[in-house]
Amino acid sequence: GAPSGELDVRSARWSPDGARLYFTADVFDGRSAVYVAGAREAVARLVTERFLVSAASPPEWSPDGRRLALCSAGMSPALWVYDAETGALEPRAEGVAVDSVRWSPDGRWLAFGAVPRRGVQRGLCMVDATVGTVLAAGPDAAAYAWSPDSAYVALLARLGGGPLRLVLQRAGSTVPVPLVEGDVTEASWSPDGTGL
To answer: So what's the pLDDT on residue 117?
Structure first.
């Protein structure tokens, strides 16, 4: 439904195409409801009627601005995808506490940090954003970034408890390939995706 009365708005972000805006409104205990409104609409639609989201993991727009990735908080954590055009809200990874979700530039994949819960190890997970096929967790990433062509994720990760290393992981894979030995503190892709 549409919001009524005053809301305690915590965050807001336009979709990349500028067609929609999401905003979060604090409900209780650091958890928020999510609303979406079209750029020319006077009324916002409540997206999260069934759950609340954590302020620690804000929603993330897909590159085309049509879908919104949401991380539910509480007893039944999950990663959800909301289709802003159809209004459909579907789970993509259930039973996994999620943080720092990011879309691949082509919008096919979602990468996220899995927080340990019910047998799930901490680490970088990927899920097919369309059908919800979850891949097992890769290494625990301190930071990560998609390549511009969506083929790889570059991670700063500790393998076997050692120092932070630059690691490459192919989209759809859980096998990390160490690139640089030693303690790496940051990395970024070149704009054309040919180098780190």
So the answer is: 56
**Nearest-5° Cα angle at 195, 185 to 127:** 75
- What dihedral do alpha carbons 166, 170, 173, 177 form, nearest 10°? -30
157, 147 Cβ separation under 8 angstroms: no
List of residues 6+ apart from 8 with CB closer than 8 A: 25, 26
Cα distance between residue 177 and residue 82, in whole Å: 33
Reported for 106-112, long-range contacts at CB under 8 A and 24+ positions apart, including other chains, are 106/63, 106/149, 106/150, 107/62, 107/63, 107/64, 107/67, 108/150, 108/171, 109/146, 109/150, 109/171, 109/172, 110/69, 110/79, 110/81, 111/144, 111/146, 111/153, 112/71, 112/79
Please state the pTM of the whole predicted model: 0.83
Residue-level pLDDT at 108: 94
Cβ neighbors of 33 (< 8 A, separation 6 or more) are 24, 25, 27, 46, 47, 48, 52, 53
Residues in the chain, pLDDT under 50: none
- Tokens 């970024």 correspond to 188
What pLDDT is attached to residue 115? Answer: 67
Q: Is 116 helix (H, G, I), strand (E, B) or coil?
A: coil
